[in-house]
Write the C-alpha cells for this entry.
Amino acid sequence: MSEALPVVLPGQTARTMTDHVAGVALGEERSYLWWWMAFLPSLGLLGLGIVATVWLFLNGIQIFGNDWPNVWGFPIFVYVWWIGIASGGTFISAFFFLTRVDWRTSINRIAETMTLFSAACAGIYPILHLGRPWFFYWLIPYPNTMSLWPNFKSPLMWDFIAVLAYIVGSVLFWYLGLLPDLASMRDRTRTRFKQVAYGVAALGFRGSGTEWTHFRAVYGIMAAIMAPMVCSVHSVVGLDFAGGNMPGWHGTDYPPFFVFGAVFSGFAAVLLLIIPLRRFWGLTPYITERHVDVLCKLMLTASLCVAYAYMMEAFSVFYGHDAAEITMFKARIGGFDAGVYWSTIILNCVLPQLFWFRVCRRWVPIVLLVGFGAVVGMWLERYGIVIQVPHKTALPSAWGVYFPTLWDWALFAGTCGLFASGFLLTIRLVPAISMFEMRELITRKLAR
Amino acid sequence: MIVLGAFESEAAMARAVARLEADGVHGVETYSPTSPARSVGRLQSRLPLVMLFAGLVGAAAGLLLQIYAVTGIFTDSLWGQLGGGYPVNIGGRPNVFWPSFIPFGFETGLLFAMVAGFLGFLLINRLPRLYDPIDESDAFREATRSGWFIAIRTAAKPNHDRALAALQASGAPQIEEILE
Amino acid sequence: MTKTPAPRQVSGKQWRSLLEDPDTVARQYPVLAEMIGHPASRRRVLQVMAASIALGGLAGCDNGEADGKLIPAVIAAPGIVPGRANAYATANVVGGDAMGITVAHQMGRPLKVDGNPLHPASLGGSDAFAQAMILDFYDPDRAAGIITQGQPSDWPSLQRVMADERERLVRSRGVGLRVLTGSVVSPTTGRTIDALAAAYPGMRWHQWEAASRDTVSNGTALAYGRRLDVVPHVERASVLLGLDSDLISGAPGHVRHARDFAAHRNPTRGPMSRVYAAERAPTLLGTAADHRFIIGGAEMPALVAWLAAAVLRGEQPGSAPSWFAPLVADLKAARGGAFIHAGPDLPVEAQALVLAMNEALGGRGRTFDVIEPVAYRAVDFGADLRALTDDMAAGRVETLLVLDTNPVFSAPGFTEALARVRLSVASGPSLDETGDAATWYVPGAHAFEAWSDARAYDGTATIMQPQAMPLFDGMSAVGVLSMLRPGFEGTPQDSLAAVRASWTSLARGDAWVRALADGVVPNSASRPAQVAIRPEAGRSVIPSVVSGEALVTVALVTRPDPGLFDGRFANNPWLQELPRPLTKVVWDNPLLLAPGLAHRLGLRQGEEVEVTVGAASARLPVWIAPGQAEDVAVALYGYGRRVVGAVGAGTGVDVYPLRYAAGPATLRRTGRVLKVATTDHHDVLDTGDTSDIVRHATLADFMRDPALLQGGVGSPLLYRNPPSGPVAWGMSIDLNSCIGCNACVVACTAENNVPVVGKTAVLHQREMHWLRIDRYFEGPAEKPEAYFQPMLCMHCEEAPCEVVCPFGATVHDQEGLNVMVYNRCGGTRFCSNNCPYKVRRFNYGPYAAEEARPVESRNPDVTVRSRGVMEKCTFCVQKIAATRIAHDISGVAEEAVTACQAACPTQAFSFGNLNEPDSEVVRRKHSPLNYVLLPEQNTRPRVTYEGRIRNLNAEIPA
C-alpha cells in the first residue's frame, strides 16, 4: 500500500533539488518570518535557562524540588527524556541506513540534527544536577597526583562514557554526512563570506572519487557503529536505574524498556519536526506523505513495544511479590499522582493505536496530536520512573513526595530553548535534507 | 596542469573513465555530486580495517585502564609516576570486577573507532584542503550539484597533451585546462 | 514559610542591627523567598548573625583556674594537649532536676556533653537537653549586655540604682523586696537567698517552675503530711504501672529510671519485667510498655479510684474494663516488686492514692523510697507564684529580683502584675520576656560559666564547676543576689567562694578536688525519710474533671514540649529541629488530636483550629496522634516565645494562656491550613505492605520458639571481597531498650557537626540527622502499637551505595567502615538512591555555613561539610581513629564508643570489635533476637537489631 506514496514527488532532478534545498539554507527562500517567529521565543527560553543555571550555581541544587527520597528529581528524568529523543534520531539515520531504506534519505539530516541538540540538552543536565558541578571532570579517567580514578563499577561512570561516546559519535556522524552538502553550499553561494565559511566547514571536500570511496566506507561503518551505540547508550541509561537496588528500578527489563521508550519518543519528535518543516520550507517534494506514514507506523511499532514493557513491569511487580515493590506500584497506579501513570499509558499505548488506520496516519492534526502525545507521554513515563518510584522505598520512614519548583521548570524550559534554538539555527544554516544522498536517490534509484 | 572534462551524466563519465584507463592515462580523478556507482573501480578503502583496529585497541585500552586503576599493577613503574592504580574495596566486590568493566570497554571501543574513522578519512584524503587549483574552473562548481567531471593532473607537457587528447576522444562535451 | 500569628514584640530593636530582625528580611524578599523555595529568612538571618558575632572572650578561656584571667590561646593552658580532649564533671539542671555530666574540652573549649558515669542520675547516659547544652552555651543571641527599659545600659548605672535600692531596703528592713527564682536545688544559691532574707527580714522568696510537678509534691504532702520526694527504684520493679507517666521521659532522675527500666526489658539478659501504661496521650513509657491502655480524660480519675479500691481494699469495681482485674492481680502478685507511677498530669488526690497503693503493695524501701525534698525549699510553685502576683498586683512589692525563670512568658497574670512593681531586676543566661519586661536585665552566667552546686533526684550533690570564662559577661546567680546585700562594695560575690563555703565538709585534703573530678560529693544522697503514710491518703477522693461532651469540646492536656521544655530551649536549633519522639514534628507545636476525633471533626493534618479554654484562646495547627484518647487534646507549651533569639523567633504558638485557663476546650476550625514540618513525611498511618522492619513477638511465643525472630541474613553471594582488617567494627541495637528519647540524635549532631537546616528545608525533606529514630505504628489508628527503631548507616559489607558512586567517593575500609570521602564527592546522590536504609544525607544548601554557631563550637576532629556533599554516619570514625592511635602507642585493645552509644540512657546501642569474641557487641549479636534489617537486600550490614519482645499478660484479651 505504501507503494502508492512516492519517496520523492515526480519532477525533481538533482539540480532542482539541490538548488531548492541549498537555497533555503542560503537565505534565498521567500519568507523566513515563521523561522524568526520560532527562533526568537526559543532564544528567550534559552535565556531563561541561562538565568536558571546562574542561579543554580549561586545557590546550589536547593533551588530544585529534590528532597530526601527524591534525590534526583527533574534534572535526571528530563535528562533521560532528552537522551531518549536523541536516540530516536540516531536510530532513524543509522539503522535505516544500514537497511538501505530509501525514505530514510530525506529525513536523516533532520533526525540527526535533532539528535545532536537533544543529546546536548541531555548532556548538560547530569552536570548541572551535581551537588558540586565544577568537579564533573573527575569522571574523566586521567592520571592525577592522588592516584585517584573514577569508580568504573558505577553505572553512572558507564553512563558518562556512554553519553560522551554517543555525543562525540553523533557529532562525527552528523558532520561527516554533512561534508558533501557543505561543499555544495560553498559552490552554490555567491557571497564571499559564505563561500569562506562554508568552504572552511566543508574542509575541502570536492567529491573526488577517492573521497567518495573512503566516504562511503567510513560512513557505512559509522552507521554500523552508531546503531549498537544508540542501543547501548540507552541501555546504560536504563542501567543507571536497574543497577541501583531501589524497589521498582531493580529490573533486568530496564535496558530494553528504556530503548523502546527512547525510539518511540524519537520517532514522535522527528514527526513533530518534519511536518512543519516540509510545510514551511516547501520541502514536500522530498519529505512526502510517505515519510509521515512510515514514521507513524514506526511509532505504532514502538508503542507496542513500550506497551509490552509496561505490562512486563506490572507483571514482574506482582509476580515477584516483593512487598516494597507492590507498595510502590500501588502508589504509582493509585496514589495522589496516579494521573501521571495513567496519562503515560493513554499517551504511549492507547493513543498511538490510531495509527492502525490509514486515515489517521494521513490526517496531519491527528498525526501531530499523537506525536505530541507520545513526547509528553514519554516525559511522563520518565517522571514516573525517576520521581514516583522513590516515593516509596523499602523503609516507610524514608517515604516522601516530590514537587518541582519554578526553577526546575525554568531549567527545563531552558533546555527546550537550547534544543529549539540550536535546531532552528542549524536547520537554517545547513541543508535540512541530505542533498548528496537525495541526488543519489533521484539520479540513480528513481531513474530506474 | 589539470585537464578537466565535464559530463552530462554519470554513465557518460563512467564510460570516459573506462576509456582513459584503457588508454593508460595516469592521474585520472573523477568529481561527482554524489558517490559514483562503482567509482573509479580500482580503489578499495582500507578505512574500515583501520576503524576495526582502532575499535579493538580502544576496547582493550578501556579494559586495561580499568584493571590498571583498580589494581595498581604498574604503580611502581614509570606509568606509576603518572598516577598509579589504587585498589579500594568498593561494595565488597572484587577489585577486578570484570562484569562491570564491560560497558566502559565497549564504549571506549566504539568511541575510538568513530574518532579513528573520521580522522582517518581526513588524513587519507589530505583534508582539510581549502584550496585546490581545480577550484579556478567556474564550471567545476557544478560538481557538487549535478555535474560529472574527470580531472587529469599532468605533471609534464607530453603527458598533458596525451591526457587532453584522450579526454577529447572519450567524448567529453566540455574540456577545460587549468594551470596548476 | 507559614508563621503562626503569635504577637511579636522585638525587644531592643532600637539598638540591634535591623538585619537581625527576621521579619525585616522576610519583608524585603517575601516573594523571592516563597518562589524559589530557598531556606527562608531565618536561615539568612543566621548567616548574617554568625558573621557579626565576635567571640573575643572565647579563645583559651578555660585555664583550669578561677582567677578570672584570660590566657591567650597561643600559650597552652596547663593540662591541655592539642588534639586530646579533656573532660570535666559538672551538672545540668533543668527545672530543678539535676543530672551529672562531663564536658569534653578541646584546646580549652567545651565541645561535648556526656553523662557522668559516677552520678546516680546519669550512670553515663544523658538526655537531649544535656546533649544540646553546648549550643546554648555558644548561642550568639546571648550576647546582650545590661538593659534597662529596652535601652542598653552599663554596670555603673546599674550600680547607682542598686546603691539607692540597698539604702531603701536597709531602711525598710527589706519590706517590699521579693526574690523569684526557679526551683532551687543548689544549696549555695539557697543559702545565699537565705542570707539575704536574714539581712532583710521583710524579704520574701518565691519559686516558679512552669513545667511544675506541683501535683506530685502536693500529693506527697497529702499522703505523708509533708512535702517529700519519692525516689523510684525501677530496677527492682518487676511489674510497673504508669498512669500518664513521665517516669522515663521527664520525671526527676528520668535518665537513671530509663536505665533501670531497660535493665529488665530484654528476655535474653534476664527475667523480663511487665509494664502497663494507662494514659490519655502516648508517653515514652506507654510506648515501651507491654500493655498500653488508652484512658479517656474523664475515665482517668475513675481508673485511679478503682485501682485504689482494688489494691487497698480488695474491692472489684463493677464496670471496670476487662483488663482491669488481671492488671490488679498482677500488681498484687508482685507484692514488693510492683510500682505504680503517676505523672504530674494527675491531680493531687490521685497522687496520694497512688502513693497509698505503692505502700500497700509493699514497695516502700524496695521499689521506691521517700526522702526529704532535694529542693532547697520545696514549695507549691503555683501557690507560691500566685501569692507573689497577688502581692504585686496589690502594690505590696516594690523591688523584685527574678533569677533564671521566665514568668512573664510562662506564668499567669504575671505581666500585668509586674507593671505595678517599681524596680524589677531580671537575670538569666539570655534575654527573655521577663528580662525584657523588667526594669533592668542583667545578663546571667550560663551553667558552664560559674560555680554552683546541685542536688539530684536522690539528693546526691554535684559541685558544678565552670567550663569557661563567661563568654558574654554573664553574672552568676550568687553574684546577682549579692548586689542587694547590705554593704555591697561593687564586686559581685565570687561564686567559687560561695560554693566552697557551702561545702566546708570538702575542705580537708583532696576531698574538694576529688569531688570536682568525680562530679559527685561522696555520701551526699539523702537517707530515706522516716515517715509513715497517713491513712487518709487511701481515702482521697478525686474531683471529677471536665471532659468532652459535644463533639468539639475536649479536655486540654498541656505538657512541656519534648524539645523546648518550658520554653527555655527555644533558641537552641538542635532541640528545635529534634524530631519529637512520637510525632516527629520539628520547629512547631501543633495540637495533638486522636485520629477518631480529627475524623469526626473533619480535620486534616495541619489544618488550623482555634482552641478556646475559658477566656483564653490560641490558634494551632492540628496534628493527628494515633493512640490518644478521643476526648482530650494535647497542647505542648514552650513554643511561641516572644522575646527570644533569631532561632526561636516566630516558631510555634504560646499555649500557656490555655494551660492556666479552666474548663473544657472548644475547637473551632479557622479554615487555614498550615505547614507543619515533620521528619515523618509519609501519611502517619500508611506503612504499606512492608511489615518486616521492626521484628517483634510476645514473650510467650519467644519462649516457645527462641529462633522466632531470626531468619533472613541474605542469600549467597556470587562475589565477595570482605574487609580484611584485624578489627571489624559492628553494632547491635536493642529495640527492647530504645525508648525513643532522642539523646542519641542530639549526641550525634553534637559530635559530628551535623548541621541544622531550618523549618523550610525540613518541609522539603532535607533534614540532615545522621541518626534518626524511626517510629512505626502497627495496628488500628485508634489503638496502635508504636515501635522505635534507631536508624543509622548500617555499614554494609556489600554496600550498595559504594558500587554506584562514579567518583569513588564512598568506599570500604579494612575495618568494615563504609567511608564517605567528602573531598571526593561530586554530589550525584546515587548512593542515597541506592541505600535501602536511606541513611545518607545530602547538603542541598550550604547548611553548615549558614549555621549561627561560632566555629569554635564545632568538633575539630570532624570535617564540616560543604554544599553539594553527601554525608552520613561514620560510626564516629574520629573516635575510632583515637582508639587506634592509643592502640598503636600503648597496645591497649581498640575499644571505641560512639556518640550515640555514650549518650544512650538505656544502653540500647552496643558497639565494638566483632573479632573480639567476648565483647559485648558480639554477645548481643549472638542473641536469638538478633536480626538483620531488610535481609533481602543482601547488604550484610554491620549493624543489626535485637527484636522487640512484649511480655503480655495472658489474662488480658488482645
